Amino acid sequence: MGSRDSHEVDGMLSGLLERHLIRRIHESSMGGEREYAFVHALARDVAYRQLPRAARARRHGAVGRWLEAKAEGHPEDLAEVLAHHFATAFDLARAAGDSDLAAQLEGPSLRFLTLAGEHAFNLDVHVAERFWERALELSAAEGAERAHLDLRLGEAALWGGRSAEAARHLELAVVALRATGDVRLAAIALARLARARDNLQADPREVEGLYREAVRLLDDDGPSGARVTVLTEWGRELSNSGESDAALEAFEGVLEVARELGVPEPPLALSLRGSIRGSQGDPGFLEDYRRALEIAETQGLGIERARIWGNLALDIGLVEGPRRSLEEYERVFAFEAPLGLALGYARDNRVVALVCVGDWDEALREANQLERDFAERSLGGVRDLLLVRLLRLLPLVWRGTDAEVRVHLSPVVDEARRGGVAVDVCWGLTVAAIATAPHDLDEARILLEEMVSTATTLNDVSLFHMIPEAVRVALRCGDGGLAERISGVVRGALPAVQNTQASVAALRAEHRGEREAAVTGFADAASRWHEFGIPYEEAHALLGQGRCLVALGRAPEAAAPLAAAREIFARLGAMPALVETDEWLQKTGLA
User: DSSP class of residue 464?
Assistant: First the structure.
């Protein structure tokens, strides 16, 4: 700090001491400097208001320059305080009509407001937004400065759950960054815009086009942090579209870029690679997640940590059951709330877990609320909204509420088909077949044939909890070959898949008349589902066991599993299955 600034600050402190408005506290931690405090907040306010605006502007500027010098090359540690003093000085100078002083203060004000936003971003998105919005209000920033602020405001709005606002900022950023020739930031802005447009239910082809353009911009750019970001988001999009091999290639590319740059593994890409490894049956995939969370925490990447944790909450349920997913979601939401985040995909995946554990009332309440949030706030993407609508149908179907199912079914299935993404189509067709089967088995069979055809190269493990029901429908159609093809839609060694295959194997054995094998298989499946925590499938396995025992003339043995199945179906309110169970109980002669 220059001698003029130092004298001005010293003079101000001396005058306040003489008037008994402040007192010295102790030596501060900042290089042995003395620290002072007002004797009362009223004294502070009165003293402050006695100074003319121009004098206040000079003093705020002097304090800012002094603090900047004391920061010794690390101004980010004092970014918020520096932003306050320089921006306040700028406002006061402009209000006092001192254009020369305002011109001197504009640069540091803009710089430290921007830096303060960067510093706050992974701690509280809303605080970061306020700094960046203030920078835009304060300055006539244009070109690269304005583009950078629009990009950062777009990202803050995106992770804060306001996709329409995010898209407006990001569209401006893309145009300006291209004009300035900053291909790296332009590519990041395009990738973020693609996410925002997806949340706004844009045509999937438009969304894909934005991602592809972002990747293309960096084709000849070489290794960079921007390439890491863009390839990670492109890989996430490929994974969500069911293109696992292409996504895995993208994530491996990200990790290679990091090695070339000599930086730690990018945690989000590492976790997303882990998710694909899990879907392919590699039980070691959780190690990728744990390492990714550790890296994100070490680097203070709050937003990435929340995104990784949200994905982990879903995938850990494939190994340890849906109740573990629900436990993790509670932790995720507690972590993300103070950061100002609103990650819609985590909320809709929580609905998946609620459906699986049999908390259907809560699942329906949450699904209805999410649909409103997605529509009103653009909180999630088009696929998030579609998933919620499909998930809402499952408890309604299983409870036999046909009138409500019929209202919602056709529009949702049409939407899934229009999207053209294999994962969406498979979900839509599976739910449609399950819902249609009670009324039209021929139509249900056609829907399942279409689903299997769509899923030829797809291994979407998230379908696991619907596969046994789809197989039951195929067998009711009398089509064992279709049942066999459906059973191959999900593959791998994860417990969720193995449980599914246990149920399917027992169903197919029963269909072939191999009832002794089926009894053993259903008992094994019931035990698996009980331990895993999916009561609807546990009850169906118990029902299957009872059916086969009755058919084998062992009715007394059938009573216990049938009674256990009845208790579960009654608790869930699964009326069609409950009616069937009661019919088999009657056949035991013990009901």
Answer: G
